[in-house]
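User: Before I run my own analysis I want an independent prediction to cross-check against. Here's the chain; please return only the structure tokens and, at the end, one sentence I can use as a sanity check.
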Amino acid sequence: MNAMNSSPSSAASVRLTRVDGSPVRVLVVDDEPNLTELLSMALRYEGWEVRTADSGMSAVRAAREFEPDAVALDMMLPDFDGMEVLRRMRADNPNIPVLFLTAKDAVEDRVAGLTAGGDDYVTKPFSLEEVVARLRALMRRTAIVADEQSSVIVVGDLVLDEDSHEVTRAGEQINLTATEFELLRYLMRNPKRVLSKAQILDRVWNYDFGGKANVVELYISYLRKKIDAGRSPMIHTMRNVGYVLKPAE
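Assistant: Structure tokens:
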């Protein structure tokens, strides 16, 4: 991988661990030995336990045995594709977070991966730091899931149920349109993380709006009227950067 940055992450001052204090586990699935070796080194530098697999079948088997906390999964494998691996993994563990690694930069391919249930993606060639950061974010994100069924997300007094599409704040029901719900879900899955308009467009609308980033501003304003009206604000604008949702102070 010619453009991969092999320097370890400098932002890893706080190490992630499992609830019991043991190292988090990450499964790396790719059929390029150089890539898996470099990525494994970077993840072990974080203090994480790493297992690798070079095919879809070995990946599914490793996921069952290793019980990873997150998976970095190549879309193209020698036996079957990453989306099939994801389906089989999720049959055993519905909540496992998956970061797709893909050589395809086409919007349709990214959308296909996310629609299939992937949580995030990076496009090759990528920096090791980016993959580490994305995996950290995915594992942190799962920690805000409040109930065992993982359908309920809680940030402060704001509660979103992904199954029933019900949203409440301080116990009060909030009615959202489908797009407002998707936007809020994305914000709540990334609490205290500043999200750019481009990121929001890509994840909520699934394609580039080009110069029409004002659609994000519009829907943020809709959400604020429903979520923050008459209450301490949770949705904040970071000037020239993006938006962040965090518990009210």
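Sanity check: The longest strand covers residues 25-29.
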